[in-house]
Amino acid sequence: MLQPGRTLLSSPRIQSRVAEMASEIRGHYGAELPVLLGLMNGALFFLSDLMRNLPPEAEFQCSVVGSYEGTASSGRLQGLDTIGENLRGRRILIVDDILDTGLTLSKVDERLLELGAEEVKICVLLSKRVPRRMEVTADWVGFEIENEFVVGYGLDHNGRYRSFEDIRVLDEVADK
Ligand code: XMP
């Protein structure tokens, strides 16, 4: 049975890194803020904490995309049609919870360019140290992590554990 185990990243550590990333993002864009495109559901808390550390003029939108079944990528990405056509001509900052195989971010990036976005950059809270299935370079990365399945702060296992304020490793525990 899989259950949340040790804490990998505490809530204060996450909050301070998110504030730091927002400051780097502000420094990069100056007054020309991009539209933040949050990939739901995993990026829910990261997007909202990032937004609270950006100027009030910052705009955001959300799309619901996903490829995960349990703890593995199915290799098929669903939900690309939830990306709004109103992003044509805009500078976009994709905000996602975690970069793993690279499938999600490469497909979303491709779709945004197809829709005519002026520029697309990527910001992820976590990046797993694994070989990518698709080539993706994130412009802002909160933390590099090993190849462990993590939950909390928006990340889930079959829809559960998203609301933990910290990020924990999912461990195999013996059934009672
Ligand atoms: P890809 O493989 O497309 O993965 O780069 C990105 C999406 O996969 C999910 N993912 C995880 N979700 N804990 C999770 O809760 C994990 O350790 C994990 N690894 C990948 C997530 O939805 C992410 O956006």
In short:
With 176 residues, this protein is an alpha/beta fold. Helices cover 23% and strands 36% of the residues. Helix 1 packs across helix 2.
Low-confidence stretches: none
Strand content: 35-45%
Question: Could you tell me the number of beta strands?
Answer: 10
Question: Structural class, judged by helices and strands?
Answer: alpha/beta
Radius of gyration, in angstroms, nearest whole number: 16 Å
Helix content: 10-25%
Give the overall shape.
Answer: globular
Q: Reading side by side through the largest sheet, how are the strands ordered?
A: 3-2-6-7-8
Are any ligands bound, and if so which? xanthosine-5'-monophosphate
Span between termini = 10 Å
The succession of helices and strands, N to C, reads EHEHEEEEHEEEE
Count of individual helical segments? 3
Overall pLDDT level? 94
Largest sheet entry? 5 strands, parallel
